Amino acid sequence: MRYLIILLLCAFISCTLTKRTSKVIDLKLEVLTDSIADIYASSIIKKDLNKDLSILASDEYEGRETARPGQKKAAKYILERFKEIGVSPGAENGSFLQTFTVDAKNASNVFIECNREKWHIIKDFYYIGNLKDVEHKNIELVYVGHGIEEDGYSDYKGKDANGKIVVINDGVPEKSKIKHSDWSSWRKKVELAESKGAIGVVTIKQNYLEGAERIQGFMENPNMQMHNPGRRKADLIPNIYISDSTAKTFLLKINESKISVKVDIEEELTSDNVLGYIEGTDLKEELVIITAHYDHLGYDNGEVCNGADDDGSGTVAVIELAEAFQKAKNDGNGPRRSILFMTVSGEEKGLWGSKYYSENPVYALEKSVVNLNIDMIGRRDDKHEHDNYIYIIGADRISMDLHLINEKVNERYIKFELDYTYNDQSDPNQFYYRSDHYNFAKNGIPVIFYFSGVHKDYHKPTDDVDKINFDKVQKTTRMVFYTAWEIANRDQRLRINGIK
Ligand SMILES: [Zn+2]
């Protein structure tokens, strides 16, 4: 599950849209009247859940960070399990993988050599701004004072900056006649240099260390964004800052110096959702979607965040559910509606995988009847003194049928204490917006988010397998199974609130 981003505005809007209808017609479980479902529910066992989770949440999987090798490895593991179970590839072109592009930035990939001596990032230089990738070799330098030009005054007078890298002083000259105060903006100076034909700017910075320290965190943390073709492109020429002492060491004879600059920040990576599919019998156009995210945070200061609970627990539940439904299908008891078992990535970065799927659905969203999303089901939170509970979030917001089916399944088979604390729309945690079901809910698809709460190891390297309560994971997975079985097999599709 992802960190809270304040979405109170959304919460307010949804309040006005999804008030619970007051007249509720009772609903009967249509299908769960015989014992066929029990055969397959009982195939969901903690030993299998434990086996898969011990692998996926081991250090070898490097915390499964989106677009990194650990995520790729986890995708391969899940894909192999789907193959072994016998479910069909659920993505396009006979593939189990739905792959999306991720724009990453490796901010420390700026390389400078001056007079054949390497400059070290942070120690000798840093940069500011959204630099575009470039490579310039053996470029001449030209010193242009403070790099300022305005009515009746120019630091560029008599200087040729064309095709060169200009060296300037930070700020404005003391006791100067400069009229415009905005020369303290680096952007204005860089724009002027560019208009003079310069291909880069080196600024000699007072208080160098202060600036370098501020920028260090950014250099050390590669960041990622979901690929968005409309995003502002990196367009800045190299905008480099050096200290007085770097200037004195390397740039004493500035007119005889040559500098090479290589900026190689932009990285295009990919990430994957893993999709297994069981085709329904007579209602196969309609689809039940079961999800969990298999990505997690990667490393935290050199330690692997294994994400056993978040969301290894949901991931292995989805694998076991695929196995149970495939067994049923093999016995001739396959579901009437089709079922998509989808483990997504990019969740911790911002629900990317489910967002990508909802914008590029493999199966029509109008025919997708429900999303059952499992995220963190293996632990107990501080608010409970026993393990026999589950938080149910979102079930009644779009379809009261779904809410009632879930309650009846629980009453008959599971007997959890159903905790609706986080379903309250005014709850400050706003969990409804914080996992992948939200990308289905916002498209009008009924959802349930199954959740056992946060704990002291949440988003820490200590979220490990040995702390998982597998009885609870087994019980929750069976709960999802019975609900999915009922929804996939009943005559009537779940009704949307307010729509007859
Ligand atoms: Zn998380």
What does this structure look like?
The chain has 500 residues and is an alpha/beta fold. The chain has 2 domains: 315 residues, Aminopeptidase, CATH 3.40.630.10; 155 residues, Glucose Oxidase, domain 1, CATH 3.50.30. 31% of the residues lie in helices and 24% in strands. It contains 14 helices and 22 strands. Strands 1, 2, 11, 14, 15, 18, 19, 20, 21 and 22 form a 10-stranded mixed sheet that branches. The chain is elongated, with a radius of gyration of 29 Å. The relative contact order is 0.18. Zinc ion (ZN) binds next to loops.
Features:
500 residues; alpha/beta; Aminopeptidase; Glucose Oxidase, domain 1; 2 domains; ten-stranded mixed β-sheet; 22 strands; elongated; binds zinc ion
What distance separates the N and C termini? 34 Å
CATH superfamily of the largest domain: Zn peptidases
Tell me the helix content: 25-40%
How many distinct helices?
Answer: 14
- Please tell me how large the radius of gyration is: 29 Å
Write down the domain tally: 2
Main beta sheet: 10 strands, mixed
Mean pLDDT: 92
Poorly predicted runs: 6-23
Using the coordinates above, name the CATH class of the largest domain: Alpha Beta
Would you identify the CATH architecture of the largest domain? 3-Layer(aba) Sandwich
Fill in the CATH topology of the largest domain.
Aminopeptidase
Q: Quick one: how many beta strands? A: 22
Name the hetero compounds present. zinc ion
Strand content: 15-25%
Helix-strand makeup class: alpha/beta
Silhouette:
elongated
